[in-house]
Amino acid sequence: MSGGIGVGKKCTLEEALKHWLRQESYKDIIQVELAQIEHSYVNGLESARAALEEDIKQRLQACEDINARLYLCSFLFKLTGHEEWLDAMIDSLVSDMALSLSWEIRIQLFGQLSSILFNNAVYQTHERNISMKKMYSGIVKAMTDDIGGKESLIPVAERDRSLVFVITCQYLAMEHGPTKTALDRCSTLIRKLHKKVMLINSGELLNVKNILPLCETVRGNYNDAFLQESMVEYQGLKIPFYQCEHDMPNKEGILEIANLIKQLKPLYMVVIGGDSLLADYLSLLVPSITIGTVPSEVSTTMGQLQVIGRALKEKDQDELRALGKDEKDVIVGRFTSSVPMEKLPVTRQELGISTDWFVCAVVGARLNDEVTPEFVDMMLRVKDKRIKFAFIGKFDEGYERYANEYPDFRDRTINLGFTSNILGYLGQCDLYVNPKRRGGGTSVIEAMHEGLPVVAFDYGDVALGCGNEFFVADYEEMAETIEHYLLDADYYELKSKAARKRADQMLDTDKNFCDIIFSAEQRLGIR
After folding, report:
1. pLDDT exceeds cutoff 80 at 5
2. What's the CA gap between 65 and 74, in Å, rounded?
3. 52: which residues sit within 8 A by CB, 6+ positions away?
4. Would you give the DSSP letter of residue 70?
5. What pTM was estimated for this model as a whole?
6. Count H helices, E strands: the chain?
7. I want to staple 37 with a disulfide (CB 3.0 to 4.6 A). Which of 16, 81, 326, 349 is the partner?
8. b or e along 142-154 (b: 16 or more beta carbons within 10 Å of the residue's beta carbon)?
């Protein structure tokens, strides 16, 4: 690009600032230049950093182009981490300014912001949750207006009482929590409720098919191989299956499934996770029951019913109102999991774990984001050096970053990486320790199944899974409690038994999901 800072050329922050001032719009900055400006910003003088940020603020005040506003705010948020820029992006997308964007672009931007909030508990607030739900409801309205169909519920008498559609936004592998959640519900519907089931993967999760006006984006995983499959096997069952192309949601794809609904006329849909424009459009034809994959929170759905794993609080009522819903649209029911069918034998020696270590398992697919400096400080405050922390899951760049920053980090930890043999790995650990995060609901059940007590906060899906038996108030108490488990064998044994008992309750999908379905059918007037 002419006039830009060349690749490989070092520049000072002052030079980067001068270059920025020459830009006519956000479109004139290419990614290479952004990377160099970011490097200069991070390593520059405080005064120069402030000057760069102030210059962009001035541009924002006069900026009426939502594309430019989003880009500049995302750029500042990436550089500074300041929450005001996250709020500026959210506010722009719930304002009238957002109406200039297509609903396809808006739902992808919604997904990017949702990812930031999901992966960073520090950014999640009640006010932002409400704004995100208002944003989503506006997108659903724009979608239905654009599609233009005047859909109405198919009369109950015309629907096939034996047929249920199950819709998930992502279908990957048995190690993937939402995939297992979908298959477990399919299994119960078939075996216990004697339904025929059609499983559909809409492929909507974090689908970035357009060039978005953001500094950087994340993309959801998608397995092209499933496009060839018309059936999936689970627990000896063969389940009819359809995977949408990886360009959803779009008008043509939504209408294709809507026509299938009109043709087969299922009794209702079970939707795994929410945030599905496909499912929300289809709910105009047949009612939907949303099983949130963050069961400790209100799901983002415009469908008829959703399930939450605990009693509603006032803040939940506020979020429901943002969706045009209230408590009558919610079923309180237990969110259950399943453990892998197979547990392969593995030894501590094979994992590089010493026999005299007391091992605290930290499990997750997003540990690069979820393991925070506060959590690392807690780990290193634990005095007894026999206590080690084993990371199981995706934790590559984060592990190396902390290892370089904290001299004792490597000595107190081991990074076991991702495994499909999660029960085998957990079986060689002593305790399950959870950072403050929203997810983790599946892994805590797997840990308790193996007899591991839990140390967690009263926050997120892990809290919902383990119950208040295992809560701590803060990271200081977490460190003390970990040492207590090592030093008090009787206490450990008592809590280990409690963990196994809790796991048994949380693994009974047949009973708990059947209870949910019975309640839903009564509410929908079909029972």
Report:
1. no
2. 14
3. 13, 16, 17, 20, 37, 41
4. H
5. 0.83
6. 22, 13
7. 16
8. bbbeebeeeeeeb
